[in-house]
Amino acid sequence: RTVYVNGDYLPEDQATVSIFDRGFLMADGVYEVVSVLDGKLLDFEGHLVRLKRSLKELAMDNPLSDEDFLAAFRALVDKNAITDGLVYLQVTRGNPGDRDFAYPAAGTRPTVVMFTQSKPGLADAPAAKTGWRVISIEDQRWARRDIKTVQLLYPSMAKMEAKARGADDAWMVEDGMVTEGTSNNAYIVKGGKIVTRALSNDILHGITRAAVLRFAAEAQMQVEERSFTIAEAQGADEAFITSASAFVMPVVEIDGAAVGTGQVGPVATRLREIYLEESRKAAV
Ligand code: PMP
Q1: pLDDT at 86
Q2: Exactly one of 148, 163, 190, 193 is catalytic; which is it?
Q3: C-alpha of residue 278 to centroid of ligand 1, in Å
Q4: What integer pLDDT is reported at residue 95 of this predicted model?
Q5: EC number(s) per UniProt (predicted)?
Q6: Would you state the pLDDT for residue 274?
């Protein structure tokens, strides 16, 4: 693989970053994941807007112009001959000096890393036909989940707990209400109405979420942005998640209880089709 580090395109085994980089020492960094279908980037603009917001919230310099980000993404897709897959982008605060809690001096160059992951057939994941099984777990992450930081240990622990219990993912719960999945936004469908938690600092503002809610409204589907419990989700007609890499993925079981019929439902199926069709059309 050819990867990107601070302006250079290098073979992955020659790409290096300082051990003093604050991304490594303190998880002081942010990231984005953009899907590639047919060699084109999905929702690129939305991901770039969110990246810039994450950087701003952490008072980190924006290292590249929008044009340079797009050019680098395209170059990596090209150099690695990616038809279907992902581009991962990470910006950390860098650090030329020693370990210190205080940020380095203004003007310190952030570290920018990008790489691709080839995923042939990404849009035809067999799981979309059978659905995911999820477990619930207490949400023990920090309180700024709206910032897409590389501080992913708790979601990793939750994913491992899900795997240990034979499930595909975990839905995190805070004060009795579902926040989101380990790396996706959570939804239920009841009586034709799509319900998903409202945006706040409690969840990541999913780019796929924004697109799916827009498409749902355009298709005259009812949407309600409010919190829900695991019990309500278990009693719903359907459940699903959204993310840049899973698109719209049905959820058919929560903590061992079937959701609705226990089969993939029509609303999730339709939203997945619309999302894939519309975002392919708008891909760059
Ligand atoms: N929530 C969390 C915690 C995530 O990590 C992700 C994926 N990055 C999402 C939601 C979905 O966001 P997006 O649709 O932008 O991929």
Answers
A1: 98
A2: 148
A3: 19
A4: 86
A5: 2.6.1.42
A6: 98
Distance, CA of 250 to CA of 188 (rounded, Å): 10
Residue 148: active-site member: yes
Between the CA of 242 and the centroid of ligand 1 the distance, in Å, is: 8
The CATH number, out of the four listed (1.20.120.1200, 3.20.10.10, 3.40.640.10, 3.30.200.20), of the domain defined by the range 127-282: 3.20.10.10
Tokens of 77: 């897709």
**% of the chain surpassing 90 pLDDT:** 98
Give the pLDDT of residue 54: 98
Q: Which pLDDT score, from 0 to 100, does residue 8 have?
A: 98
Nearest CA to ligand 1 atom 5: 183
Number of CB atoms found within 10 A of residue 277's CB: 10
**Residue stretches of the chain with pLDDT short of 70:** none
Residues within a 6 A CB radius of ligand 1: 33, 180, 183-185, 204, 206-209, 242-244
pLDDT of residue 106: 87
Distance 97 CA to ligand 1 centre (A): 32
Reported ipTM: the value is: 0.99
Whether CATH 3.50.50.60 fits 2-122: no
Among protein residues, the one with the nearest Cα to ligand 1's atom 3 is: 183
